[in-house]
Amino acid sequence: xxxYDAAQLAESEQGWYFFDAAWKNWRVMFSNISxxxxxxxxxxxxxxxSLAKVFRPHLSVTGVExxxxxxxxxxxxxxxxxxxxxxxLSFPDQSFDTVWSSHVIEHLIEPKQMxxxxxxxxxxRVIHSVPVGNVDDKNMGTPHIEIYNRINFxxxxxxxxxxxxxxxVEDAYMSSFVAVVEx
Length: 183
What we know:
Helix content: 25-40%
Number of domains: 1
Distance between the termini: 27 Å
Shape: globular
Strand order of the largest sheet: 3-2-1-4-5-7-6
Order of helices and strands: HHEHEHEEHEHEE
Radius of gyration: 15 Å
CATH architecture: 3-Layer(aba) Sandwich
CATH superfamily: Vaccinia Virus protein VP39
């Protein structure tokens, strides 16, 4: 698995304010939330969860990150983030209504293991997004391990017997695929 350090996350977050791609992707994910609790796997600075709380203040939001380099930011945003292993989460089965990740899977050697864990801890819905195609020239962090197209992204979910919808989020800068798994 590759990861970003705190400086790279800060630089990446600045992209939220300048590129429509992040906003478009987030809106598709946000519009597919089911229930009142969200777990964000690989939440980074927590900007996605923070925005969710702005638009739905009643949501209970939790993030998972590998280290606490953004602890002050998480605290200032009022979001709960825990250090945990996304391949072996410490949460009980069906702990969260919706589990999501945004632009994390392409950094993982074993993405199906993370997807299985996200399905295990979700009660209703799982949402994962990845960039479309080779976007390493636009990536401000570590290189992507896998480059996704509609076929290989869909195959990630083929072992799971749930309803799957794939959305294409088009953007001139960076398009994304968003998978929604309905339990």
